[in-house]
Design a protein that fits this description.
Blueprint lengths: L5 E5 L2 H16 L4 E5 L10 H6 L7 E2 L7 H19 L3 E5 L3 H11 L4 E5 L11 H12 L2 E4 L2 H9 L6 E3 L3 H15 L14 E4 L4 H4 L2 H12 L4 E5 L2 H9 L8 E4 L4 H10 L2 E4 L2 H9 L4 E3 L7 H5 L3 E3 L7 H5 L8 H4 L4 H17 L1
Parallel strand pairs: 1-2, 1-4, 2-3, 4-5, 5-6, 6-7, 8-9, 8-11, 9-10, 11-12, 12-13
Helix pairs in contact: 1-7, 1-16, 3-4, 4-5, 7-11
Bound molecules: uridine-diphosphate-N-acetylglucosamine (UD1).
Length: 360
């Protein structure tokens, strides 16, 4: 019986969500799994709270790369990860999603003997100005095994000549979302002080560099959110808070700013809201899977299925007729789009199969 050792490299908030079901699946099968944290996210609200709520064990190693320019952050992760892998000596390294942590892991492992797996492969925005697009293209092309969440992602991998290394496994975020939705409906999380339990609000987040780092653009988005004649509750990433204060932008009208929420608080907030406005990839899907229309403050999305099904509207400047669009009737998305909540099981099956052939 084969018993390889696994390392998962994670570092940013959405990666903690993705590693949780993979860890639990590996643990159930008695396989050794080390979590290496790059340190890209270090605030408790972006990191520790996710480990606690999703019952992920503490990382075996924290590379403490912290914030900085892209090159600086990536360089720190690359050098420190190489040393950590020398110590941990895994057989398989899994990288997740499209952050600078993902790119760094793929580059390091491509120069080492370990089997490299990319979870959430095959997503494309076709916008190379986004750091995430470069990160995911590099990770896909360097990995031995590409695990795609959707049929659309598989098709894109095929078009890039990567079909023989790609497998469709479903979306691991569905696994987590289903478990958390059940927990949250049984035991609603404590929400921040002064959060009223109304069902009549829009839940919002904004954190992407292309929205936060240009003062004129950020001012326009914040103004639009304030002018919506609704209670708009925005859970603010530290990057957004920092840029708003740097550019002297204040929330007005119906817009209120909140600290980043924990994962259960986020799921609770989405389920109680009547619509979501975001530029996050994960939140677009979470909204749609929970049956909430989503308005995406971007020119493009990697989750094209949500737009095709009429649940997601691309409104980069938030100036379409949003209220009318939100009220449209819709049919729920079928399980076939993002998988049935067993992506982690498929992921581990495919990795064990791929690795055993790779080492022969
Ligand atoms: C990163 C990912 C993005 C992902 C997001 C999830 C890249 C290029 N971007 O964006 O794809 O959607 O994570 O949240 O990898 N900061 C803190 N505390 C922290 C971490 C960051 O205050 O714990 C602040 C710092 O000012 C930092 C800024 O946020 O400079 C940006 O952090 P960074 O990790 O570079 O990118 P994110 O915007 O979080």
């Amino acid at each position: 019986m084969l018993s390889p050792t696994f390392v998962s490299l994670v570092g940013a908030r959405p990666q903690f969500v993705k590693v949780a079901p993979v860890h639990h699946e590996l643990q159930e099968r008695g396989l050794q799994h080390h979590i290496v944290h790059s340190g890209q996210h270090y605030d408790d609200r972006l990191s520790k709270s996710f480990f606690d709520d999703l019952q992920i064990p503490s990382p075996s190693v924290n590379l403490e790369a912290g914030s900085g320019g892209h090159a600086e952050q990536i360089a720190r992760i690359i050098e420190r990860l190489d040393n950590a892998l020398d110590q941990l000596r895994p057989d398989i390294v899994i990288v997740y999603g499209d952050t600078n942590t993902t790119l760094s892991g793929a580059v390091v492992v491509s120069k080492r003997p370990e089997y490299l797996v990319h979870v959430e492969a095959g997503l494309r925005s076709f916008n190379r100005n986004m750091p995430e697009e470069v990160n995911r293209v590099v990770a896909d092309h360097l990995s031995h095994l590409l695990l795609a969440p959707t049929t659309a992602a598989m098709k894109l991998l095929e078009e890039e000549g990567l079909a023989s290394r790609s497998r469709q496994v479903g979306d691991v975020m569905v696994d987590v979302l289903r478990n958390t939705t059940k927990l949250v409906s049984e035991h609603p999380p404590e929400m921040p002080a002064s959060w009223t339990n109304s069902d009549d609000f829009v839940f919002a987040t904004l954190h992407r560099a292309e929205n936060t780092d240009n003062p004129a653009r950020l001012r326009q988005l914040i103004n639009r959110l304030g002018e919506m004649h609704h209670d708009v509750r925005l859970a603010a990433h530290p990057r957004l808070t920092a840029r708003m204060s740097e550019f002297n932008i204040v929330a007005a009208g119906g817009l209120s700013l909140w600290q980043p929420l924990s994962y259960p608080q986020t799921v609770h907030a989405i389920s109680r809201s009547f619509a979501v406005i975001t530029d996050s990839g994960g939140l677009q899907k979470e909204a749609v899977l929970l049956g909430r229309p989503c308005i995406t403050a971007r020119h493009e999305t990697e989750w094209v299925e949500t737009v095709a099904a009429g649940w997601n509207l691309l409104a980069p400047n938030l100036n379409a007729s949003l209220a009318e669009w939100i009220r449209r009737p819709r049919v729920p998305l079928s399980d076939e789009v993002f998988g049935d909540g067993h992506a982690a099981r498929n992921i581990v099956d495919e990795i064990l199969d791929g690795w055993s052939h790779h080492r022969d």
